[in-house]
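[User] I wish I could look at a protein chain and see how it folds. I have put the entry right below:
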Amino acid sequence: MTQHDNVGHDVETGLIDADAQVESFRQTRNNRRTELVEDYVELIADLLVDGGEARQVDIAQRLGVAQPTVAKMLKRLVSEGYIQQRRYRGIFLTDAGRRLADLCRERHQIVESFLCSIGVSPETARIDAEGMEHHASPETLEAFKRFLARTASSRIAALG
């Protein structure tokens, strides 16, 4: 097995331990299952903040999917306790939905800010963060936050 130096840390390449690989794939599959739920809840929250309402037609338009696809997901979100639907009144987040939306928004902002801080353009960072936010572990997000804090401190010190 070969190793590469990566910012002061050894990174193994090649075939890893079978149990570790199983855990990696399990985590990725779980993240994929929750990714759509998180995208919908985050979008619903954004629509509510921006225009005071979230409608099925608006969700379909912004996600680029058909309304029946949205209807199916909304039923899932109701059954999982993230939203309430009221006939002729739109879609509302439950407390659990608001907490999930806040968590998703924070993760997205951390990833997007990190990408911008290492030189990725704002547009590309926004697009990339949309996928990466669902797969970054809490440990990785904390490392991103520490990096951003150090970078901000360095900028402040350079100004002073």
Notes: The helical segments are 18-51, 56-63, 67-79, 95-117, 122-132, 138-159. Residues 1-6 have pLDDT under 50 and may be disordered. Residues 85 and 91 are 5 Å apart (CA to CA). The two ends are 47 Å apart (CA to CA).
